[in-house]
Amino acid sequence: MALEPTSRGRFNLEKATILMLETSGMGMDILVQIVTGLGAKSLHRCQNVDEARDVIMRNTVDLVIADAITPSGEGYEFVSWLRREAGEPNSFAPVVVTASHTPVTMVQNARDCGAHYIVKKPLTPVVMLERILWIARESRPFIECDAYVGPDRRHRNDGPPDGVPRRRDDLPLEVGDAQEPNLSQDQVDNLFSTRKVSL
Amino acid sequence: MSAVRIHRPNYALATMLRQAGGITVAEAVERAASNLEGLQAAGGEQLDAGLAQMDLIFARYGDAFDGELIAEHYGLAAGLIGLPSLCGLDALENAAHSLCDLLDRLGTTGRWDREGVQVHVQALRLLRNLPAGTDAVAEPVLDGLRKVRERHAIQSSN
């Protein structure tokens, strides 16, 4: 559910240590103004992946906000490294990746890097806060296997996408009139009663 | 098949967010938005510098496909994303996304569409000079960009 920007609900980011990876100076300024506005005080600002790795190896972070670094996609590689090689507890850290544009060649990297969310720029305070609160609330299972390390990607069931035709063997949307009489209560009860089965 | 480990890590962040004190969502959003207003002037300058650079890149295009130049142009266009919105120029933000979509498609297919790129570069200039909030004026321009994308069967990422 979308976050209501006028909500009186409270949250506290003051104690959270946040790593921010952003190569653009203005991009970093925008991010800093957003997260400090949301109440964060302990920030690690990293202008490249090497700095970010160094911070990860020396500190425990509670949240990572990493730019994808278009077009090279180094940000996705950083998140993959974080998940596989950084060691606990940082390897499980909540990660939000920000992306200005995702080139076609990077879609798979974006999907498989192990981030909790990928937020498209322009960044807004509401969307950033919403994603942070979602991560904290949903507590998604963490998956570790050869092909993927990160939060379970199957965390939402939105049903079939709009505009996609139904399968040929799907039942019709419209329910017709009943063709047979309803079951009696006894018949229904019998469906649920325990019976001895001989095999 | 490889072994799969599934577990639920405890996020310290979740505990911290629930701690006493803090601020309301409304206060936080308002404060962050107010912080961003302080960046508008610098963002506008950077946007103008980027558009000037884009004119220079476009001047280097010839009649044939040039993958390296398209990649350079794409990097510059992607770097501008976010700046127009910071300055309240949503239509320009939309156009910058459209240019990224187009350049990405051209770069991956090896096709060249000088006219389509030119339309985008000119649209960026035009939209930069429109006053903020004049979406009705911008709509035909964005519609033109949409038609260019359709010509390349691009489903906009915007």
Task: Provide a quick synopsis of the model.
The complex is a heterodimer of chains A (199) and B (158). Chain A contains 6 helices and 8 strands, in the order ββαβαβαβαβαββα. Chain A has 199 residues and is an alpha/beta fold.
Which descriptors would you attach to this protein?
heterodimer, A: alpha/beta, five-stranded parallel beta sheet, 6 helices, 16% strand, B: 158 residues, extended
**Distance from first to last alpha carbon of chain B:** 38 Å
Total helices of chain A: the number is: 6
**What percentage of amino acids of chain B are in beta strands?**
under 5%
Largest sheet of chain A: 5 strands, parallel
The DSSP helix count of chain B reads 8
Main interface: chain pair and counts: A-B, 63 and 57 residues
Give a description of the structure.
The complex is a heterodimer of chains A (199) and B (158). Chain A has helices at residues 25-37, 49-58, 74-85, 107-112, 125-138, 185-192; strands at 10-11, 17-21, 42-46, 63-67, 95-99, 117-120, 142-144, 149-151. Chain A is of the alpha/beta class and 199 residues long. In chain A, a hairpin with a 4-residue loop joins strand 7 and strand 8. Chain B has eight helices and two strands; from the N terminus they run E-H-E-H-H-H-H-H-H-H. In chain B, 69% of the residues lie in helices and 3% in strands. Chain B is extended and about 65 Å long. Chain B starts with a strand and ends in a 7-residue tail after the last helix. Chains A and B meet through strand 1, helix 1, helix 5 and strand 7 of A and strand 1, helix 1, strand 2, helix 2 and helix 3 of B.
